[in-house]
Prior knowledge:
This protein is of the alpha/beta class. It has 2 domains: about 5-100 and about 430-500, Urease, subunit C, domain 1 (Roll); about 100-415, Alpha-Beta Barrel (TIM Barrel), CATH 3.20.20. The chain is about 40% helix and about 20% strand. It has an 8-stranded mixed β-sheet, covered by helices on one side. The chain has a 4-stranded parallel β-sheet with strand order 7-8-9-10. It has a 4-stranded parallel β-sheet with strand order 11-12-13-14. The model is unreliable at about 1-10, about 10-30, about 445-460 and about 460-470 (pLDDT under 50).
Amino acid sequence: MPHSDASSLLDAACAMLWTPTALTARQAMKGASGRKPCSLLIRGGIVIPAPDDVDSLIEDGAVCALGDRIVAVGSFGQLLREYAPELVCGSDKHLVIPGLVNAHDHVRAPSTRQLGVHDDVLEAWIVDLLRLPRVDPRIASTLACCRLLRSGVTTVVNSFYEGSGERYENILADTVAGCERSGVRTLMSLSVLDQGIVAELLGNVLPHLPESMRNCVREILNARDPIATSDYFDIVRNWRAASPSGRTLFMMGPVSVHWCSDGLLQAIWEQARALDLPIQTHLLESPYQRDRASTRYGRSVIQYMSEAGLLSSRLSCVHCVHVTQADIELLAGAGVSVIHCASSNQRLNNGTAPVSRMLKTGVNVGLGLDSLTINDDDDMFEEMRQVARVSAGGERRLVRVRTGAALQMATVNGARALGMMNDIGTLEVGKKADIITVKLSEDPALEHGQFPGSDIGVGIGSDTGTGIDSVSLDRIVNRARKSDVDTVVVDGEIVVDDGRNRHIDEQALLDELHEALARETRRRSQNDATIAGLKSYVHALLERRSQTASMT
């Protein structure tokens, strides 16, 4: 058999086989052909390099990586002729897209619902979090990040907070270690506050409590000792300077503008500029926050932030449910990003953020799971569906986010919000090799995509028509599930293969976690019943505040 024929047969075989052995055989035959080196080639029947540019879609395409960077994107056949990969994965039965960006999370495992804290209005739910048992942060963060990776998330913002200043840095170290162990890319948003909501709420309900509950509440308040701001800034500087690896980065994180003094906000912004760090904060999440901010500033909190010089492209604001059109225009004009948490907003009764108006006005909107997905399963694809379906923000006619825009929010927009557009968000030469493969539907009835006219409604986004671009986007957003994610690559390394983490025995970690929780349950504080009983008083306080706000 001629050398070229044998070589072609090996190419065909290696296109189907994912094993290094098959590829080694081909390389031995063709290694002297002058092909360029490539550590990984990922094939897809459909490759979407740039979700914000549907024209970039490639049928039977591939992505080549050398080390942690992408070196080529193009047709599978051509790249196989030009490159000699050490490993091939994917197939013509896969979609290949950029790794997903979960731009806001709290990296919790188990979930709050699994630990007995059920959904409620935000402020009552936050008080109820006091009942959560302490979980080993290494185990919790490892498990949570493994779940996210299996959902196709390659980059996550971990909004980290520890209520005890004494334990803050130790818990941070363990959390970072857990995230790193999982293999995900993490931006640690190091949180701080000096006007905590728990102290405010409990202080306000204290006079209304029976004497039997007051001492317990006083003990809770006295035990809360948040990190001193000077210590916080030292930790930020030290950890930024000694980042454990390229997969762990840092942000500054005022927990919420509503829970920080004006002086602390200014100090955070000054340090962020000096250290060239992004900032993320919760903002206007609930009606209570909206009314409290209006009382505090005598105007929109976003107007206050604009006047105080706190709005810039360095900033991403999480939630922004209760914003006006004037607020949206200020955010767009300053280049501020919004992180939309659709499921969380529903579960905690916060309302619907006006995402369609934000996008139309020019605000960059990313996507965050907030550790509160609608089905409690950290499914990024289900979250995209929530975004596409629930986005009108109080508008009477149907104004929804199109599927293409939802995918952009989970990739390109998230990268932009974090200041990482040069590294992640799209599959482009020179960018980080953060790539996922998604199994295409095996149902023949679905392979032909939508019927003409099925994409109804007024849409905000880029995908239009019924060609292969809209069909592919529809497959991802409206049909894909977390279980369809096959391969997850971070920094050119296959972290998840066939839906399983290659480095972590998740079941063993779960068993260890269950044993620890059983011990913790036996030690649970006698205050638990009191904390649970506080919720009715918090609800009454919120109702009084709401009535007062409606009369002003």
